[in-house]
Task: inverse folding
């Protein structure tokens, strides 16, 4: 049983259906990607988990029991809509938010100082929030989301507004938090981050759950059973009836890069054995697995 279970969640805003019988099981200690195009219902589901919005029907369980407000206090939530008090000093703002999550003044100050040093922003403590750039303010919000060491963190577009260097910093911190036992729900449009960080994903489109499961499992499921073969030979590779067909074959001075489509039930090893029977020198041989970005576009477009 996961740390969060959403059972048959339905939510409407007047005639607009935001979530239509959505069920999810989010495992403990993993990074769970919540994907979908704009307006699909992701943010509504996140708000329901945080008890900001109440569903019309369905239940949310936290550690196997109905979620309560005290459970929500254990959640670190970074919303997509950023919000800090612009006239407050950064340190005062961070202290205020940490204490709202139940930290003592002493513990909050000690932990925040560690995080500010780790992020290289220790000189910002006395600056006002309005003096910060968007990326700087986002660093502060990320810190205040995780400083109380919540068992569950919900990060909505955490890389938005960051340059590549700081985006990499956030990625490393997310992985470190996972290694320390946290469960992280990651809502993002960045498919590269999904492949790099997520153990499992769920895709919501037009208020419904389209697919869920392990990232590797889903990528293999939507593969075309194609392989890329790099070989050296004086003549082009010929198709092997029932084993593979040659979709493309590019020849560069005798070094070929070919894409083969395997027959139903044919394994890559069987195809390789057939290739070797044609007296070519194989340089490399790999399965072509679709990227999450391609799968996302395919599923959303088909819907």
Result:
């Amino acid at each position: 049983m996961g740390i969060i279970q959403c059972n048959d969640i339905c939510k409407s805003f007047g005639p607009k259906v935001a979530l239509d019988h959505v069920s999810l099981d989010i495992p403990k200690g993993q990074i769970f990607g919540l994907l979908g195009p704009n307006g699909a219902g992701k943010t509504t589901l996140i708000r329901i988990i945080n008890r900001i919005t109440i569903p019309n029907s369905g239940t949310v369980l936290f550690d196997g029991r109905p979620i309560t407000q005290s459970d929500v206090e254990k959640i670190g939530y970074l919303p997509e809509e950023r919000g800090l008090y612009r006239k407050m000093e950064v340190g005062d703002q961070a202290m205020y938010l940490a204490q709202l999550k139940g930290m003592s003044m002493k513990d909050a100050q000690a932990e925040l100082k560690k995080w500010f040093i780790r992020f290289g922003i220790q000189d910002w403590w006395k600056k006002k929030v309005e003096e910060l750039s968007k990326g700087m303010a986002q660093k502060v919000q990320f810190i205040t989301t995780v400083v109380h060491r919540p068992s569950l963190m919900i990060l909505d577009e955490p890389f938005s507004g960051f340059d590549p260097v700081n985006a990499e910093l956030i990625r490393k911190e997310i992985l470190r938090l996972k290694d320390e036992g946290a469960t992280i729900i990651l809502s993002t449009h960045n498919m590269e981050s999904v492949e790099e960080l997520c153990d499992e994903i769920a895709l919501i489109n037009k208020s419904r759950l389209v697919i869920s499961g392990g990232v590797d499992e889903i990528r293999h499921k939507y593969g075309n059973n194609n392989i890329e073969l790099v070989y050296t030979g004086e003549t082009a590779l010929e198709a092997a009836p029932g084993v593979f067909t040659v979709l493309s074959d590019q020849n560069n001075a005798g070094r070929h890069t070919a894409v083969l489509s395997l027959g139903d039930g044919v394994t890559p090893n069987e195809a390789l054995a057939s290739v070797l029977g044609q007296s070519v020198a194989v340089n490399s041989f790999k399965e072509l697995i679709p990227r999450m970005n391609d799968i996302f576009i395919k599923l959303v477009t088909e819907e």
Summary: The chain has ten helices and 14 strands. The first helix runs from residue 42 to 49. The longest strand covers residues 16-26.
